[in-house]
Batch of 4 targets.
Target 1
Amino acid sequence: MSTPSSSTGSLWFRYASPASFYPLAGRLIPWFGAVAAILAAAGLYVGFIVAPTDWQQGEAYRIIFIHVPAAWMAMFAYLVMAFWCALSLAFNTRLSAMMAQALAPTGAMFAFVSLWTGAFWGRPTWGAYWVWDARLTSTLILLFLYLGFIALRASIDDPRRADRAAALLALVGAINVPIIYFSVRWWNTLHQGSSISMTAAPKMAHTMLTAMLLMTLAAWAYTIAVALHRVRSIIVEREALSGWVGEVERPGNSASTMAGAATR
């Protein structure tokens, strides 16, 4: 008789295969995409219409409802990417490397949005679009790490060698994430400290906090949906010579038929 732990373990091993994960990702994409759209609409409504005007920064503060979730997501996506890279190096799993590859463009986009919105926030707040502040500089380095990861992968023709080289870069670059997070504590910076802490009450109105959390959850759901969509394209590209790819790409195949073909 199989135990629950053994059943869970076999499920994980089953979906570690690109052939099995492909149809599962296809089923999940519409759900996460819909959740992202609903949460983003609610977050933008609460943040830009319902939330009160800040007494100190005026209306300019509302950009934080895009800036802060983008900054959080840029850091979080990099750590998840590094996690997949570590798995690919430790267990030589193809799907882990593909997941890391799929996350990199979205993480780079969020890092860029974070820097871009931060510049527009900094102009009325600090009087300048850019200063060589510790947090801003380390976030810029994060963007370069994402771009370096993407460029390194593209410069190596052999996918397995590209996986290993990019994984090493991602793991070395992961040290930059805690530097970004703790930079306002370690150095004297212009960037304000965290308004939300796990150990203290939030420093903003509840309406503002609600908008921030809604936009953050929307960013997570969006990242999952886009990464799953992109990894399906990567799977088809890299597994093009496998017999199951022709089966799942044939018009009229249902998800259940694809899952059956993948596990045979």
Target 2
Amino acid sequence: MPLTPPPGVAVPTVLVTGAARRLGREIALALAQAGWRVAVHYRSSLDDATKTVADCDQLTRGAAAFYANLDDEMAVRGLLPTVVQAMGHVDAVVNSASTFEHDTNASFSFAAMEKHMRSNAGAAIVLAQALHTHITARGELPAGPPQGQLAPSGRSDPRSGGAWGRGVVVNLLDQKLWNQNPDFFSYTLSKAALEAANTMLALALSPLVRVVGVAPGLTLTSHLLSDAKFEALHKLSPLGRSSTAQDVASTVLFALQNQSITGTTLLVDGGQHLMRFERDFSLM
């Protein structure tokens, strides 16, 4: 059911990184279906980003595409202000973009670690900072009228549990953090750093910005897996199925809407984190 803002309140706007393709696109479409105006971030997939924008625009008008190289700190620091300038305001950031390149302890290098840390952890932290700065500048402090009443700005009081009172950051993680194996060494380190940052950011940015992790299991196939192999691996979980893109997207929407969640991670993996896997799915 699409969100309907109170009278005088703007449509909520979310920046989704890596929204041109795959899971980021599915998240963007689900949020647009729920009434969010989507800023579609992309790096190299302009044509795909343009299609995602058009599809989101059919659901909630006002979607737009924004380029940024998340390895570049200055580009990351400029991304959210650029979105704000173009779209007027931003209420949430979903950090879905991710570098995922194979290495092991034997092939580990500072360069590989830095590449993953920059895009997977550093960019998400900087965007959380930027959202907090933006929400602060809007003047939506938690002090205000009694619960359920509108603040002078026309937005609902942040304590009232409405969807428009606080900023929200959702960071996409990985069930691998709770079920580790030695594959994709630098990627896993970067996601572990981001999971730790969830706690620190939730403390540092409260009460204006909530920070929530969402950790999928095996969700989409890749060039490393045949369709048959993907289907077999997807069933390896206590529930007999791992996460679908729709499962993950609906959990992101839940995290955005639920005003009582911060500083924690929601695992959406059919219970795969409860099983022991000696290798990464793509190498099994």
Target 3
Amino acid sequence: MWSEAESRTRALKTILSSQKENTMQEFLKIEGLSKAYVAAKPVFANVSFSIAKGEFVCIIGHSGCGKTTVLNVLAGLDTATSGNVFMDNREIAGPSLERGVVFQSHALMPWLTVRKNIAFAVVSRWPEWSAAQVNVHVEKFVAMVGLSPAIDKKPSQLSGGMKQRVGIARAFAIQPKMLLLDEPFGALDALTRGTIQDELMTIVRDTQQTVFMITHDVDEAILLADRIILMTNGAETVQGYTPGGIGEVVTNTLPKKRTRADLHHLDGYYDLRNHIVDFLIKRAKPGEAH
């Protein structure tokens, strides 16, 4: 029998070998996105950016700036007032199994075991598969997140961190072209959050998964992201109402193989962190005086 670490390594290698090599090409393109619940005061306007294949992008900003709305539009769960979103040269017009989503709440079915929760998603993706094929696939992704010993437990028997691992395994198990993460670690304690951050970073690097993630945590964004999108809030100014939008896009120049433990020792870390914090304090809310 393999140890848990060996099982996880084997699972990652198997997953990686089944995927085509990714190149850094434009994969997701957002053009002129806006959302308004009140016509004269859009939450955000003219949001445009692109994400390369295999890139990890975080979006950060104050509550109410429209981060979750942007993610929901990418997921096909909401529609924009104007603008377009294209993934792999096709316009996004609704939900699709090509995009896996992990929310802050684990969203597991409480009456099903870990195995069956993930199998439900796998069968939705590949309805023609036999039960044996589904089971092998499920076990591979459960091993990837280190939960093989808990595969036949129900959510009530799992800790918060374990539930989130199941959610991550379920999202990866449908092998989406893009992974969308809506503050998936926000409800976890600091130690558990840090552990899962490290695990997610390892999985994403090894599978070359394209990721778009919402976070309020500056250090989390710096640890995980290749680029960080900083959003402003809509606000009343002396010139009138100014809608929210992208204030700045920051490229993370820290070494790719960074870890939580060494993050604050890296040259440039404090400059990058101070720049983002300064933006959030002084520039994210244009209607406020500083």
Target 4
Amino acid sequence: METKRYVVGLGEVLWDVLPEGKKLGGAPANFAYHAGQFIGSNNTIAISAIGEDALAEETLTALRQHGLNDLLPRVPYPTGTVQVQLDAQGIPTYDIKENVAWDNIPYDNDIKQIAANCRAVCFGSLAQRNVVSRATIHRFLDDTPDDCLKIFDINLRQQFYTKEIIEGSFKRCNILKINDEELVIINRMFGYESLDMRDTCQKLLNSYSLDMVVLTCGTNGSYVFTHNITSFQETPKVKVADTVGAGDSFTGSFCAAVLNGKPIEEAHKIAVRVSAFVCTQNGAMPKYSDELISLVK
């Protein structure tokens, strides 16, 4: 019997406390949800940690309501929360609580087994702010098979990143996902100020032996750079409800399309269409239509 292989969101699982109430979130959990819409929830899993509090029980209930598999060890820290404020355009700002459960993800045998059977994993910089979760993420990545897609969705938040963390992640991933605002920070941090966005992406592609760099520029479109292809897609004009989870839906749908054998340009088109749809919905995990799901089949 063939061994089951997983698509994994690894890092923070938390609650976004929005003006209209709290919603389950965290970029890796969002990624797993969106990838699972296309490749099946049985093949996707969110790996993080939760506390021993009432919010932990709500987390488990909400994940299951969204059809998400999870591997969430219990640790003696509070389950994570984020205060989210939306401006007039629906753009979020975040107040991310520290020293919470997802800062302390243990690397246990269950997580190690998932790593050994991992088809794709998405991780970010935020869950690496604490040494415990950072070590777990590094060990997980080191234990994945050679053909695993290792997507570093950089996801810079507040002050929770360093050059060392970012460079270590560049060296462990084979796909980098970054937005234009984050690229400005990287330009400054790595001394690339003389380069334009496209040249920076090419430099990162070559300097860290990456297979792809995915650059999203909000309403100004998005790019996928490989060693042979540069793909550009304009951003569709839609009525925005909020942008929470839109970037994660882009990454999840792009990953699923690539895994299902779609060419890079087609996977890029699908990701743009999916993220535009998510922008028209409230919250990070809307239900997809059959029409959207059929794009990746």
